[in-house]
Predict the structure.
Amino acid sequence: MNRLLDFLQKRIVPMANKFQQIPFIIVLRNSMLAIIPLMIVGAIGTFVTNMPFPWLNTLLEPVKPFFNALTLTTSNISGLVVALVIGFNTARHFKLDPICGIIISLAAFFAATLTDEGAFNTEVFGANGIFTAILVGYLSVCIMHLCKKYNIEIKLPDSVPTNVSASFSTILSLAISLAIFLFIRNGLGIDINSVVTTIFSPMVNILNSLPGLMLLSFCMSLFFSIGINPIVFIGMLIPILTINGQLNAQAIANGKIPGELVTWGMETIMCLGGTGATIGLALLLTQSKSQVFKKLGRMGLAPSLFNINEPIVYGVPVIFNPIIIIPFIITPLVNIASTWFLMSNNVIGRAFIDIPWTTPPIINGFLMSGGDWRTTIWTGILVLVSVAIYYPFFKIAEKQQLIIETTERKD
């Protein structure tokens, strides 16, 4: 294990750090995290309109039009919002005017997704257009960046106000972007959204499978265990989680069983207590014989209930700890595989409501499944599973810590 950790530190960490610094990855991560509040608000509408209790459904009937509208005006415009956020973050990354970035990104997105008749295609305003919004939005602002770099812009005298000058300087880059995407879409007749969807489909298909999700979880835990924050992986997964959540919500609305298992609900199960599903470790720390571990557990338990485990990861530490890394990788894999099996066989209710990644255990099971009692109980069982997997490894680490504390007291 120590040789493996040395190899990862010397070979993989530098490569991973370089990967995290790729402009597109930075923009994608920041942009996808920014749309989470939109998804959460939309999920409230889905939850209220699909209550599992008939008497409550009847009681809420008068307010259902409001909550249907809430979903319509949030989740169903996710493609448009991504185009806005991508434009903003890409422009900010290249130190350009963010407002101009938003305008160019949104205009390019509209141009790239027109119908064959040249009308707006409202079908891509939601989840169906997210990948196109990401790619087109980023490329259009990159064109703006290149125009700025090579002085392909309209320059006004210094006496002109800055905001007016900035607007005029983007005219040529906007025209170039629109010309390119309009020519491809309407001049050549290429359905850009379909092409982009096809390009991303292998990644989507992999991550939408049990092996793919388990591989992602393995990478998240492994990279975090060597000090690399796994947020970059979540940034890549968010578009898929968002699309699947909307597909499942539509299935429920049509009286069908949700078909997608890779959802925000599954993400909270994968990261029960944080990356590495460390809720069990947090609970064990609070009962430790080691005073250091006990204090750490009491300090880290509250954040862990909301799936924030940095105090524990850096405090135990988990990083470069060959003992704790083992359950840190295994526990989320067990959570995913067992939950996937139960949901796919309809033993427990499937997740169809997008919930925040900070949703505590047990509550996440209730919310993600629209109040299904089986899923609620199952997430409680997974907390005990986490305790059981971490227990033998925790006792080894505790024994080592007690020796350190005893030695320090003698000195």
About this structure: Residues 373-410 form the longest helix (38 residues). The chain has two domains: 2-200, 208-410.
